[in-house]
Q: What sequence folds into this?
């Protein structure tokens, strides 16, 4: 990292008049371009008086937050110029999009990314027209905004994205602006403690600017109206060194903000220098600086409109002059407002921003809009991956289904190797459940990260660790997003049910990637990988609140170009799938698999073939004569580990007790292969579908999640009426694993009954077998509570190979 | 409210030795019962030495947090006894379920609710056996726990539930324990600011006890290891008066906690007394007390096991002695541990808790486990509702579809009346969007609630207001849950996309209700009503992040007994549906409707009939001869306001340009009527389904949300292959409303093309009409950005009545 002298710090904190004039020119230009984007479709430089026809038919955008955002941006650029500091800008108040677009335009980055938005009057006209227009750009600082890694539409994630971006990015500062609206959200309030996980020696820094302008869309904010002493106390309590700037006077605010920014920067430098030269002392978490900036909402805009106060109130949140097309007085006021920035000083005759405006722009990749971290692929390098087969379970196929093991523990060992091979470009993010999810082998390679004090009783916990654990899905998911969007790799592992806590983040990240892959200057970024373990079926001990497979139902609605869902049935399949997803880019990969000991079905070679195809007939689990060309009596399909066991067990009961009934077992690993190819890129062809599921045989589909997911995926396939889906029916409680499947009718006995009921011919002996199955279920019901120790569990069950296929 | 004298306060703060002995006896009894539930299936009173056979086959439960929970409970009971204070206990560390179950047993409430769990040795045996056992009770403080309104499985919501419970409950204190694990979650961190919305004159109080025992399941917590001065500062910043208690010495901790609790209570009394006698002064938000209790995790349990430290570490989180069945040393240690509570002093010969133990129990409804607020129906009274027809749009059917209005504004006026008629039992909860969602008429009846300072520019904002706005879906949703679970009524209104932010809360509340309706002593509670407005289709101005109809996809998987989803097409239908849902109990009602001006279709009478049935043929929108008995060429079905307009417009194009093609329009308001009756209580009969959708005609279903919802609901209906669903395909950006439907192929022109393509006969002129539609779409594409002002919008479209049906 560059070491910055005290002289330079002093010069940042005490700008000359000339420097303030340059910052102010840039700021005025930026405010001008912001207003222009909101209002104008022509006459961008006010070469002639404004006319109603110059005004857009539909006025969109958010003015209120924009001048503050630009002020911060301008001063940061000046600091970068003086220091060579690497910095990105995270716009929490994402609705201030026009201000950030304007900034990137003034830095030339916008023109580099969008060559038709030229640095002249015609370019300005296009810049203005496209904003919030059909075929143009969205209104937020978002995917189309150079340098942005944060979509400010769904508020709450600015800080977690900032921290995710600087983990293992020691030279980077994420200058992160949080609006006082966003500051009210729970995810944002939960994010401040991220500094308890930030190591100043090896990570970069987040410089939060809490921008309090006092109001959200229609009313004041809590922090905007609290006693400033209370507000300061909150952040001091979180561990920050709070620097406050307040006012609206000019140029006074320039001097004061320059001083505050320089002070904050100096403190970051000092913290990092100490940590990097003297080492990090456990429990001495630095007091990182943050800035609280209080400036009026809608600053420099109209003070009053129609006699009503606008500037400094919630009324300036969006478009402060709404009647400009029809109200000559409003039009005049708009023109005065725009001319107050003195555009004639800011743009030359051709319409190009003048050198005075450009004077504070950093060069090249030092521009915040052009730093590689803001376009994460620029920092991307592929993961080094071990040969997963070296970690796999090698067994004789005759032993399949005859021993149990904790599949996710194998993933844990894969992650351990990945940590070793990629010491600074991979992290696991997990809400306090790494061990619980059986991924604890990672602790052989890395501790948990923790900057607070530790004791002798703590295990695998230190400032040097890189396993990210905090009891918050919002934080762990959000950190990973920031880490991936800046080009690094990772995995978010959660209890399946609590994947719903952060599912809105999953949705928003998917939307981000969907927009990003269509933008040619955006580099591809590592996929967001999600493991949902401790699943619905095996949270028998924790109860109903822990039993919810809802993430799958959400994620299958997202764009198929981005989303892949995997339900590996055993350890080797999990390893194969994991190896695959860690090589992908621009995707959201969701793996659902439980952590409890489970039967192992496929050898490494079989797992490879099965998972790459994504589905397949398990001939060894059925009893049809595949060469005969005859369809079986029933197809029992399955996707998900527990239900796969039940499906195989049901087929075994049929094989053993009703051998003349022909059953086929189909296992699906890549869930979306069930879709038609036109609905999902991995959808199986019509021929493959018919080969797996026949054309006419009924299919009893035993599914891990809610049945609707399968109904939705197979819709449009021929004769879908023959698909009978059994899944999680929201019947849960604290009970045994077997009772869970019984309650939801996905147990082996219910499946056998369903299978017999859905054959197209009458199976001799079927009625007897159904009666036997019902007896098993009745026996199960009898043994609750009072016969705890005698509960019929199925843990002593094992697969009996079919001699014909072993 | 009772006014409590200084003498009583003093006596709470300075207990006599005898009083401490009683508290301690109760506490020991409670700890004993906690351990018993985790370990024993027989020999509950240790009448003989423990044997391996006394131990449950599967050890479940969480010991670590339990002794602290019990200590707080005991002292609160003593306080209640002395003061007559009404109080409920909210168990944030919900995994400490056995401690709370034990407490309710010691209070007799458990036996009153579950008569087979008697107050004798056999009752104790049953109490122990049933815990975390199949057919027994779940492991959390949850639905089956008397007095609980909080499921502690998904952490984060203890405080919001507490605040929700005390709004408009002036005599109630919600004693709310927050564990240091939960304190790390974002929703919990976002909840502290609830005091900025709590009016001491008319609301009750929340007394938060932040119980720091230093660790979560496998490692320490941030606040458990931060400098205590920093921790205090966070809460002082949020506005609390922090009282700290720390230690493990006995009886010292009893004296210190009694003092702290008395001090906190005295401060609450003083705040409320001042507010209720002198009035509330805007901007003088009281400094409410809170307690930070630091006690060892697993306090009073085994100090070390196998030479490893247990008490005070993360290792005591769950079951500290795991080998008791097989390891004689562990078994001995368990017996020593249980005997350390001196059970012989705590239970009489019959096994009944002794009078010394019972001495601190409050009586009747003063027991925290028996307060009516903890069993919300006990406080329930139906809403007074105005006649919705008095607010409806009365119009001549000939005018249908020929004028637009903002439908949600009508709901706003209904809510205004509800506020007036039910001044203390109804609230609207909305993240800063009441006006934006056009519900602003409520402000005629009530301001927004705000305890911080206000200015002249603030509008409809005061400490006296009861409209709850804060920029947090987690808070607003969670407050409403607490409000409903204590028997009061309300509505949560959100932007549709951001309903996903709190969707996990929606899921968990649904799970709560699903369990509650099967428990006979749980009274019914008002339904949780959700309005999702500012929908995907009309967030054309805000862009892709605001375009997400995912809540519907989640909620339709929940149990049908609880969930109802409504998509009213116009204002009268919205009024009718709203009037209906506000009368329901024990449901989660989700209404999806946009706020923008939309066509009005149905007169009040028609709306009533249509919504009560839930679906219906709109004969006036089609052109078939219904009396003829002949099926139409196509059925265009629709659910959702924007897509209904497109469906009607498509039918109109066909009527006008291809009159010999027969089209039927079916509108669905109650989405789940599409289900089979066996899948949902409102599912339409086979006959109704056939009457609406015919048996064989293809159905083009134009849906508001993701298509999969419809695929899932109609699955199992005859010949579902004929359903062609068009819905939101995750194609969005900042654009125009019409471009939104075009991008997702739900626009009128695409629908006409689809309709013609899916008829079973060749329609003469069909090819020409398809070509005309394609031309319209091409023209639309040409007009982006550069011809903004000429964009073909469809806002000048109006319905042309079919002369045959007007």
A:
């Amino acid at each position: 990292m560059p070491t910055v002298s005290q002289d330079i710090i002093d010069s940042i904190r005490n700008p000359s008049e000339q420097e303030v004039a340059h910052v102010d020119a840039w700021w005025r230009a930026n405010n001008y371009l912001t207003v222009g984007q909101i209002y104008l479709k022509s006459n961008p430089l006010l070469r002639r008086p404004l006319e109603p026809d110059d005004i857009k038919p539909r006025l969109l955008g958010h003015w209120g937050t924009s001048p503050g955002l630009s002020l911060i941006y301008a001063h940061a650029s000046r600091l970068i110029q003086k220091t060579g500091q690497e910095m990105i800008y995270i716009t929490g108040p994402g609705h201030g999009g026009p201000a950030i677009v304007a900034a990137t335009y003034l830095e030339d980055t916008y023109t580099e990314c969008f060559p038709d938005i030229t640095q002249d009057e015609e370019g300005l006209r296009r810049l203005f027209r496209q904003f919030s227009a059909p075929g143009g750009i969205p209104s937020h600082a978002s995917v189309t905004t150079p340098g942005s890694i944060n979509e400010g539409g769904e508020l709450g994630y600015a800080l977690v994205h900032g921290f995710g971006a600087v983990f293992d990015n020691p030279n980077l500062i994420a200058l992160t602006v949080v609006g006082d609206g966003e500051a009210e959200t729970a995810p944002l309030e939960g994010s401040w403690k991220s500094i308890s996980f930030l190591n100043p020696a090896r990570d970069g820094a987040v410089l939060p600017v809490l921008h309090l302008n006092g109001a959200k869309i229609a009313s004041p904010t809590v922090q905007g109206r609290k006693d400033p002493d209370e507000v300061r106390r909150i952040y001091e309590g979180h561990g920050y060194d709070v620097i406050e700037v307040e006012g609206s006077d000019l140029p006074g605010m320039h001097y004061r903000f320059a001083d505050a920014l320089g002070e904050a920067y100096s403190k970051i430098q000092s913290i990092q220098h100490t940590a990097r030269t003297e080492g990090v002392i456990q429990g001495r978490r630095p007091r990182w600086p943050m800035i609280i900036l209080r400036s009026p909402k809608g600053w420099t805009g109209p003070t009053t409109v129609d006699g009503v106060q606008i500037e400094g109130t919630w009324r300036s949140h969006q478009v402060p002059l709404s009647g400009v097309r029809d109200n000559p007085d409003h039009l005049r006021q708009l023109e005065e407002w725009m001319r107050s920035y003195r555009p004639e000083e800011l743009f030359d005759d051709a319409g190009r921003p003048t050198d005075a405006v450009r004077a504070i722009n950093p060069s090249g990749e030092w521009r915040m809009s052009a730093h590689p971290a803001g376009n994460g692929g620029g920092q991307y390098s592929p993961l080094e991956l071990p040969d997963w087969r070296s970690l796999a379970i090698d067994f004789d196929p005759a032993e399949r289904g005859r021993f149990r093991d904790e599949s996710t523990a194998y993933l844990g060992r894969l992650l351990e190797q990945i940590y070793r091979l990629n010491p600074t470009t991979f992290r696991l993010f997990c809400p306090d459940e790494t061990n619980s999810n059986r991924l604890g082998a990672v602790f052989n390679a890395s501790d948990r990260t923790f900057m607070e004090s530790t004791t002798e009783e703590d295990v695998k916990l230190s400032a040097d660790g890189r396993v990210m654990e905090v009891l918050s899905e919002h934080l762990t998911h959000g950190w990973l997003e920031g880490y991936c969007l800046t080009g690094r790799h990772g995995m978010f592992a959660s209890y399946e049910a609590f994947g719903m806590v952060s599912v809105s983040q999953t949705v928003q990240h998917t939307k981000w990637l969907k927009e990003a892959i269509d933008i040619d200057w955006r580099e591809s970024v590592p996929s967001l990988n999600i493991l949902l373990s401790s699943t619905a079926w095996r949270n028998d001990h924790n109860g109903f609140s822990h039993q919810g497979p809802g993430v799958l139902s959400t994620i299958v609605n997202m764009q198929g170009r981005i989303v892949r869902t995997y339900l590996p049935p055993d350890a080797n399949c999990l390893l194969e799938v994991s190896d695959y997803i860690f090589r992908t880019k621009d995707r959201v990969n969701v793996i659902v698999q439980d952590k409890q000991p489970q039967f192992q079905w496929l050898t490494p070679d079989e797992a490879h073939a099965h998972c790459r195809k994504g589905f397949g007939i398990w001939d060894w689990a059925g009893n049809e004569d595949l060469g005969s060309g005859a369809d079986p009596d029933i197809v029992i399909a399955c996707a998900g580990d527990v239900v796969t066991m039940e499906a195989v067990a049901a087929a075994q009961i049929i094989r053993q007790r009703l051998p003349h009934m022909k059953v086929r077992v189909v296992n699906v690993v890549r869930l979306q292969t069930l879709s038609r190819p036109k609905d999902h890129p991995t959808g199986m062809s019509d021929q493959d579908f018919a080969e797996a599921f026949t054309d006419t045989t009924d299919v009893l589909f035993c599914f891990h999640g809610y049945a609707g997911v399968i109904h939705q995926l197979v819709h449009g396939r021929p004769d879908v009426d023959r698909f009978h889906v059994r899944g999680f029916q929201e019947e849960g409680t604290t009970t045994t694993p077997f009772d869970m499947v019984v309650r939801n009718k996905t147990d082996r006995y219910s499946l056998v009954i369903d299978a017999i009921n859905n054959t197209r011919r009458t199976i001799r002996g079927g009625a007897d077998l159904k009666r036997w199955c019902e007896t098993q279920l009745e026996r199960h019901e009898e043994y609750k509570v009072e016969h705890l120790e005698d509960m019929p569990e199925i843990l002593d069950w094992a697969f009996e190979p079919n001699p014909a296929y072993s």
